[in-house]
Amino acid sequence: MSSENPLLPIAVYGSLKQGKSSHHLLHGKPAIDQGWLTGFELFDLGSHAAAVRGNGRLYVELYSVTAEELRRLDALEDYNERRPARSLYRRETVSSPSGEPCWIYLYNRPVHMRPRVASGRW
Question: Residue 78: which region, alpha, beta or left (left: phi > 0; alpha: psi -120 to 50)?
Answer without folding.
Answer: left
